[in-house]
Design brief:
Layout lengths: L9 E6 L28 H13 L4 E6 L3 H7 L8 E4 L5 H15 L4 E6 L2 E4 L1 H17 L4 E5 L10 E7 L7 E9 L3 H10 L1 E4 L4 E4 H11 L1 H12 L18 H6 L3 E5 L3 E4 L3 H12 L3 E4 L2 E4 L4 E5 L5 E4 L4 E5 L4 E5 H6 L2 H10 L6
Parallel strand pairs: 1-2, 1-4, 2-3, 6-11, 13-15, 14-16, 15-17
Antiparallel strand pairs: 4-10, 5-12, 6-10, 7-8, 7-9, 8-11, 17-18
Helix pairs in contact: 1-4, 3-6, 3-7, 6-7
Protein name: Mannose-1-phosphate guanylyltransferase
Keywords: Nucleotidyltransferase, Transferase
Organism: Nostocoides vanveenii
Length: 361
């Protein structure tokens, strides 16, 4: 059955090409986080697909990923049309992926309006998300020159996330704001200063835009680079790949530089980024109502403020822990304070690099 809010030109894209290195050792190059369930029966990509299917229907959902993960995407979403995979030949960052997907969808439907989603999000309740998606589609269908973010007001300030400050909009659209400040993974002092002077929304990566509008704005920002992607879309035999020299660093950079309107609506749904172990802990602790979260086979006694994720064939036995993340895969066990991962996320990157080094200590 088609969802009530679906329209003939409404599409959704799931971006699922990342390696999820911040969720190592459970997330690896061969089996990244989008194909993990984190305690749920469905993988993260499967959960995202179901949520978007309730908004646009399954036939209008596309998956943006790499050739390396094409098989994993088809396995995770049974029945997905292989023609709805948009495969990057060589990942060149999020703006390149956005342009590639917009070009591919616009080629099928020049009137397409697109809603995007990342796989590393927890969104509840579904009804609130559906309502926000419908509002975003309707606004962009009427004002095709703008890109729109489904934002959520943060319940706490997290320096690993991106934020957008807003002001009142000139358009007489209830609940619509204009973006005026953009801050990506700020330090604590900068974030607290901005929060004291602006109304902030978390950047959920749920954008809504007309495909042709994004293509036009991106072409103005880096014409040579994005022309290569257009040629790739129209004749994939013409070039084997494309490089990112001169391309924007962030998906909104081209809109900001061009002075294009960027709208924000209050999504009204609960949202958690689940891209790091501290954020996974916060999401699961809120969901379960317990300060000790244990996923997988094993037993715990008396631990608190602790996350245990067992993705191995072993039993994990813990007791009396405080403030730790314990994550086990079949070949690695990570034990590290959650607070250290929050304060110094580069620690995990160093451990990951050293894991494969000979004679490691």
């Amino acid at each position: 059955m088609s969802p009530a809010i679906a329209g003939p030109h409404r599409y959704a894209v799931i971006f699922a090409g990342g390696r999820g290195s911040r969720l190592w050792p459970l997330s690896t190059d061969t089996s990244p986080k989008q194909f993990q369930g984190l305690g749920e029966s469905l993988s993260l990509i499967g959960q995202t697909f179901q949520r978007l299917a309730s908004c646009v229907g399954t036939e209008n959902i596309f998956i943006s990923t790499t050739r390396q993960y094409a098989g994993g995407a088809l396995e995770a979403i049974p029945g997905l049309d292989p023609g709805n995979l948009i495969l990057e030949p060589n990942p060149q960052g999020k703006p390149a992926a956005y342009h590639l997907t917009a070009a591919a969808i616009a080629r099928r439907d020049p009137q397409a309006v697109v809603l995007t989603a990342a796989t590393d999000s927890s969104v509840t309740p579904l009804s609130a998300f559906q309502e926000a998606a419908d509002r975003a589609f309707r606004i962009v269908e009427e004002h095709r020159e703008r890109i729109l973010l489904l934002g959520v007001k943060p319940t706490e300030l997290d320096t690993s996330l991106g934020y957008i400050g807003v002001e009142e909009s000139d358009l007489e659209v209830p609940g619509l704001f204009e973006a005026c400040d953009f801050i990506e993974k700020p330090d604590k002092a900068t974030l607290e200063k901005l929060a004291a002077t602006r109304t902030l929304y978390s950047n959920t990566s749920h954008y809504c835009f007309a495909a042709t509008t994004l293509l036009s704005v991106y072409q103005q920002a880096a014409p040579d680079f994005f022309a290569k992607i257009d040629r790739y879309v129209h004749d994939m035999r013409e070039i084997a790949s494309y490089d990112g020299a001169g391309g924007p660093k962030h998906e909104l950079d081209a809109f900001i530089a061009n002075g294009s309107p960027i709208g924000v609506i209050d999504g009204g749904f609960g949202w958690h980024d689940i891209g790091t172990w501290p954020s996974v802990y916060r999401m699961l602790a809120e969901t379960t109502g317990h300060d000790r979260v244990f996923l997988g086979s094993g037993t715990d006694e008396g631990s608190r403020d602790t996350l245990v994720v067992n993705g191995s064939t072993m039993d994990i036995m813990t007791a009396g822990l405080t403030g730790l993340a314990v994550v086990a895969s079949d070949d690695t066990v990570l034990v590290v304070p959650l607070e250290l991962l929050e304060r110094s996320p580069e620690v995990l990157a160093r451990l990951r690099r050293s894991a494969g080094a000979p004679n490691r200590k």
